[in-house]
Amino acid sequence: MFRKLYQKNVVAPLKGVLKKGASPHQMALSLTLGAIIGLSPLIGLTTIVCSLLCLLLGLNIISANVSNFLVYPIQLIVFMPFMYWGGKIMGVDLEGIDADLLASMILSDTMTFLRSFGKAFVGALLIWLVASIPFALICYLTMKYLMLKVGKKLAI
């Protein structure tokens, strides 16, 4: 069942884009951009950001959003570590905060909550930006190799 879903929702759209003439280079850039944006701490905004960047850079929106959607579970896993370490580098202590404490902070002093979490979020974005550089290089090289292989198979 998983294999059918994977073929239908991942492989088929990517093959379709390659068949329509997208170069392996463009596909690799699109997939890399989608993965990088998808791993950012911008939960809920990645599809919009990814699509806008694709339009600005002339990349394939479908390919980028396929990889964006594929990394979404990982984004949820890395969000809290990004926020925790982002808070650390920005001088905000987020240790020991649970859902109840978070709710009471929001209700009792919204501005303090926004300042604290805003700083932690900025720190999370900085960490993500730094971590994205080597990840983007590795992802691009891997995707380009895979797209060249798939492109050769489609040409046969």
TrEMBL record:
<protein>
    <submittedName>
        <fullName>Uncharacterized protein (DUF2062 family)</fullName>
    </submittedName>
</protein>
<keyword id="KW-0812">Transmembrane</keyword>
<dbReference type="Pfam" id="PF09835">
    <property type="entry name" value="DUF2062"/>
</dbReference>
<keyword id="KW-0472">Membrane</keyword>
<keyword id="KW-1133">Transmembrane helix</keyword>
<feature type="domain" description="DUF2062">
    <location>
        <begin position="21"/>
        <end position="148"/>
    </location>
</feature>
<feature type="transmembrane region" description="Helical">
    <location>
        <begin position="120"/>
        <end position="143"/>
    </location>
</feature>
<feature type="transmembrane region" description="Helical">
    <location>
        <begin position="33"/>
        <end position="57"/>
    </location>
</feature>
<dbReference type="InterPro" id="IPR018639">
    <property type="entry name" value="DUF2062"/>
</dbReference>
<feature type="transmembrane region" description="Helical">
    <location>
        <begin position="69"/>
        <end position="86"/>
    </location>
</feature>
